[in-house]
Specification:
This protein is of the alpha/beta class. It has two domains: 160 residues, Beta Barrel (Lyase, Ornithine Decarboxylase, Chain A, domain 1), CATH 2.40.37; 170 residues, Alanine racemase (TIM Barrel), CATH 3.20.20.10. The protein is 29% helix and 25% strand. It starts with a strand and ends in a 5-residue tail after the last helix. Bound molecules: ligand LLP. Ligand LLP binds next to helix 10 and helix 11.
């Protein structure tokens, strides 16, 4: 369900719609998502782990568009949230609060209260201080807070340092060495109910080993807890499964499931996951048009109308996204190496470097694998209105977020 070339005229298509048509109709830059690709990758998770009692909690931060959340909610998905705003979005989309887990190191009193009142499945607690606050808030509201400790299993996810979260020095989770003591403390605090254990070691992980290493450390703790009379209802192994951006060979979910099976023989409870990128990453692309070509002695620049404010990943993580010319109307030579840059006044506003793309001004480009951490990380930097998001389903296209206007830019400011 990814983009493909039409056999007749070689134009890039998504489902049954030509990307040219979408650009003409909705303008550029513009995010485009495939509904089938989204639902297929969610289903792939469900299928791979069907022999477990599994809840797949989609990590909302990857892409929080209401329509996408609604599609997933309708499939019975759970959600991993990290803010009151994400809770609001999931509830607006019809998500079941009893399938929501709440992660994040800085949950505020307000956010905790909102989640308690909504009746979420579990708070993934990231510090002793948060445990204390949760107990206080739950006591005040005369409610019970269901909790997991997010344990840092101290494994190297072998990914970009900005998206590795399971190292000893990480701000996330509690060290495995202090987890038992914290669980004992949680047992004594009023209005808390221990329901699980959680970990998340990083993102865009393409091999199985770090996941299995983390799982084994978590299971060790689960057994120690059971021995102390603290049984758990669920184990949450987080998200982080990578996708193919360039030439990565992402791990197979069924291999993951097969490797987990014998490890979970002893455990009766539910298995939770928090995938974001794997669900939505390859379901989206960014359409952008070439404004200018510019030659300087050292570089051939292709200046496009999308910038780092629309897609931050290449500037922030030197992330690679494939760029494809949408219509290929004439055979072109492809030996020229270009850098694709955006309009933003920052040298780091680069969307791709060293690409062999023979483009002209006016050409339409598709930047692939932008469904995750694309729109959700975008900003209005340089007073650039947020760009639209379009959902494709078969031959149907729906604007699921409209393009902002200049008026939108100033609507919350005092004149
Ligand atoms: N659970 C927790 C607690 C997380 O912090 C994250 C992502 C996920 C689940 C989902 O991870 P995923 O399955 O998507 O890898 N902006 C970066 C990625 C940051 C990930 C932050 N946490 C990027 O564009 O690569």
């Amino acid at each position: 369900f990814g983009p493909y070339r039409a056999p007749t005229n070689d134009t890039l298509m998504l489902e049954s719609v030509s990307l040219n048509e979408i650009a003409e109709r909705y303008g550029t830059p513009c995010y485009v998502y495939s509904q089938s690709a989204l639902l297929q990758s969610y289903q792939e998770y469900r299928d791979a782990f069907q022999s477990f009692d599994t809840l797949v909690c989609y990590a909302v931060k990857a892409n929080a568009n209401l329509s996408l959340l609604r599609l997933l909610a309708a499939q019975g998905a759970g959600f991993d949230i990290v803010s009151g705003g994400e809770l609001f979005r999931v509830l607006q989309a019809g998500g079941d609060p009893r399938r929501i887990v709440f992660s994040g190191v800085a949950k505020s009193e307000r956010e905790i209260d909102e989640a308690l009142k909504a009746g979420i499945l579990c708070f993934n607690v990231e510090s002793a201080a948060e445990l204390q606050r949760l107990s206080e808030r739950a006591t005040r509201l005369e409610m019970t807070a269901p909790i997991s400790l997010r344990v840092n299993p101290e494994v190297d996810a072998r990914t970009h340092p900005y998206i590795a979260t399971g190292l000893r020095t990480s701000k996330f989770g509690v060290p495995a060495t202090t987890a038992l003591a914290l669980y004992r403390k949680a047992q004594k605090l009023p209005h808390l109910k221990i329901v699980g254990i959680d970990c998340h070691i990083g993102s865009q992980i393409t091999t199985l080993e770090p996941f299995l290493e983390a799982t084994d450390k978590i299971l060790e703790l689960v057994h120690q807890l059971a021995a102390e009379g603290i049984p758990l209802e669920h184990i949450d192994l987080g998200g982080g499964v990578g996708i193919c951006y360039r030439d990565e060979d992402p791990l197979s979910l069924s291999a993951y499931a097969t490797a987990l099976k014998p490890r979970f023989n002893q455990f009766q409870g539910r298995l939770l996951f928090e995938p974001g990128r794997r669900i939505v990453g390859n379901a989206g692309l960014l359409l952008t048009r070439v404004e200018y070509l510019k030659t300087i002695p050292e570089r051939q620049l292709v200046i496009v109308d999308a910038g780092m404010n629309d897609l931050m990943r290449p500037s922030l993580y030197q992330a690679w996204h494939e760029h494809e010319i949408v219509p290929v109307d004439a055979p072109r030579k492809t030996d020229q190496k270009v850098d694709i840059v955006g309009p933003v006044c920052e040298s780091s506003d680069v969307l791709g470097t060293g690409r062999t793309l023979d483009v002209q001004a006016g050409d339409l480009l598709a930047i692939l694998s932008c469904g995750a951490y694309g729109a959700s990380m975008s900003s209005r930097y340089n007073a650039r209105p947020l760009i639209p998001e379009v959902l494709v389903h078969g031959s149907q296209t729906t604007v699921i977020r409209r393009r902002e206007t200049y008026a939108d830019l100033i609507q919350h400011e005092l004149s």
